[in-house]
Please model this.
Amino acid sequence: MANRFWNEYQKKIADNHFYYERSCIRQTFFPGSETAFLRMLKEELGKDVFDDFRLHTCTGIGYHADVVPLDTTMTVVGRIFSLMTEKGYENFVPSCVTSFGIFTEMVHMWEEHPELLDKTRENLWKACGREFNIPKNIAHPSDLIYHFRFELKKLMKYSLVNRFTGKPLRVVEHIGCHYAKIFPDKGVGKAEFPYVLAGMIEAWGGEVVDYPERRHCCGFGFRQYIVQENRGYSISNTKKKLESMEPYEPDFIVTNCPGCTLFLDRWQYTIAEMENKTYDREGYGIPVLTYEEMAGLLLGYNPWELGLQIHQVQAERLLDKIGIPYDLKQKYNAASGKILRAPEKPENLLV
Amino acid sequence: MGNLVDLIKADVRYQDSLKACMNCGICTAICPAAEFFEYDPRRICDMVQRGDEDVIEKLLRSDTIWYCGQCMSCKTRCPRGNVPGAVITILRTVSQNMGYYKDSYYGRQQEELAEGIGTNIVDIGYCVHPDKVAPSKHPEQGPVWEWYIKNIDEVAPKFGANYHGDGPGALRTISPESMEELRKIFEITGGDELREMLIKGKNQK
Model:
């Protein structure tokens, strides 16, 4: 009986042949995660993934900041689908959670209002002379890593277990709002019981931390972060989450949204500098990882190629707990091996 | 029905966003913006549903509609399937089209957003890009961001990025052909018109 109900909370995720659409925020702040995703899919799992250089933004941040009109976003989505159609793909994988929400919303509107689809086709034809098919399957990259979590587990060198205590690591999972809050049936576990990250954590040996503000927004808020004077909104939301999770002493946080990864990381630094407060016992902060960084570390990828050094909360103590070796001399080297001067140290946050 | 109510209901998103609100207030209970601002999505849905032109005009000229953070948490709990966050998107659209946003301090921030994010899209094909996140304007990004931006040419390839390169990869330069098509879409679908109207508003201060 329980399984029958849980089946209603599952989504269909394609098995192979994916058309990948990159994220503005992930490319900017977490480029190593996109690289790791493609490496896992292509090299570890042998999947066919197409990374198209002709793509551009989906306009998602502009749409939610109300500076890009609906017709424009719809037609941009049409162009992106046109490029996918041209290459013969039907399974679409948008890298960003905001983009995932945008593509899902546009397809939903086309289904509900076919006249909008006609208008978008007309606009796209006028602008670019292009036609498009709607994807048969839209899955977020976190859906794919969840989908293949047991295959990946077989290839992993490490697990989410504290090697000093032998106990599972305690992990806070944070789901980006636009993954399942807009269209709950498009997310694994829907909006109330999202399982996409919890499934990875459990499969790989960790323990999911449940805490009161687990589903609260990180506070990005689009205009509430982008406009400098509004950022009090953003940091207040993150602070609320951090205060709520603190008593549970998580070993790290993992998210499936680049904005959430960024804010949960950077606002910890800001709070430490403003109030000399951190949410761990020792003053280093709680490391915040993307799901690809979490998976990549367990697969044995080099932490400095994943990009852990460009998080403000540093993760060496977590690597020590898992037993992952790292070379501090390489941490701030250039790609060529050239030694670069390390970043300045924050005043309060230990690194 | 008056003019503003007509404009709001004419937005295709209205049908999916506001059916019959029973004013239970669960949207306000879950709303992050309601915790931070004097903001109450329940009251906004009530105002829109009542359809009083004077009340709606006042709302469209106020700061209130610019407080929502678009997380859409409201959608997950509404027992009637309404989406107050999407009602806000419609109200913001009408406010901008009518020029009412100019009466609101928060509304006028749209001019800055159009000049930033809006221009980034048609200039470089990205909403956000490291070249557009200056450490001086983002102290919260910390010394790590300052270090990354200073060394990005040498460090980004370590993460597999193709910073300012041709061909595929993270942070590649978007090809001229793609930019031409993207700009053409903005030209014929009203994207340029909205951005230019907002930027012009800033210069008229």
Summary: The two ends of chain B are 34 Å apart (CA to CA).
